[in-house]
Task: structure prediction
Amino acid sequence: MIPLDIIHTVSSNLGFDACGVCEAKAFRSERDQLLHWLHKGMHADMGYMERNLEKRIDPTLLVPGAKSVISVLLSYYPGNPTIATQPPKISRYALCTDYHTVIKQMLWQMLELLRKECGPVNGRAFVDSAPVLERAWAQNAGLGWIGKNGLLIHPKLGTYTFIGELIVDIEIEPSNSTVTNRCGTCTRCMDACPTGAIVKPGVVDARRCISYLTIEKKTPLAEQERQSLNGWCFGCDICQEVCPWNGKLETTKCQGLQPKAEILGLNAQSILNLSNEDFHNIFGETPISRAGYEHFMLNCKSITNR
Ligand code: SF4
Ligand code: SF4
Result:
């Protein structure tokens, strides 16, 4: 069995902020929660969440002979720039290069380093491919707990982290520490959510969530949805901004996740004046390109009533 220390060293040498390991197995209770969430239609029109369900929840179906799941966290916290705090607001995670690109490259490097340290290793890197299970794997690897806002909370890094995994076919000593849920009696995120999207602790109904409405929704927003955006044109950070575990965070040290100056320099007027070409030049490598020019501009116009 590979000692956990080796994984920690490789992870910190690559620049990840935290790392843990758990056994590669399907988590039945999370599977049931996910099925219930899907059954209730809380995934809205994100049909892709229903596809390959068994594969998403069982690491051994993703990597033949999988034995261990290495979970890593990378902080993207950029502080409180105006573009994330004054309408039209952009969620902090979207101010930098798309995290899929950055983290996948780092995970592939990790796999290469593991091969050097441990011999032949077969594995695959995942970022955001099954968010519900990714949080559960990270929790089981001792990286935090799932807060009432549905996000993984690391005691030092808070919630502004990206989660990635390497599923590998080698047996690695699992992290034996678990972090108990420290939300306690706090309900700040549930109270602050302007649309009531956190329907019970840890459960977010995407149909009401501003993040879904501004990024994923494929059909035009209804009038009531437009009115509910609370100044956000891409994503929403409210249930993270109010979380006390995000109170004293350091900004990200990762060079690849630094907020882009062109985005930080935007304001309401310059956003409304963006041409299609400007949009692609400024947001092309960021998660914002996913929404597309028209969707993004409609969100901005809804907020500024123009
Ligand atoms: S992202 Fe915004 S809308 Fe969605 S649950 Fe959090 S506070 Fe509510
Ligand atoms: S705001 Fe409070 S209840 Fe919500 S996730 Fe943070 S600690 Fe937990």
In short: DSSP finds 15 helices and ten strands in the chain. The chain has one domain: 1-301.
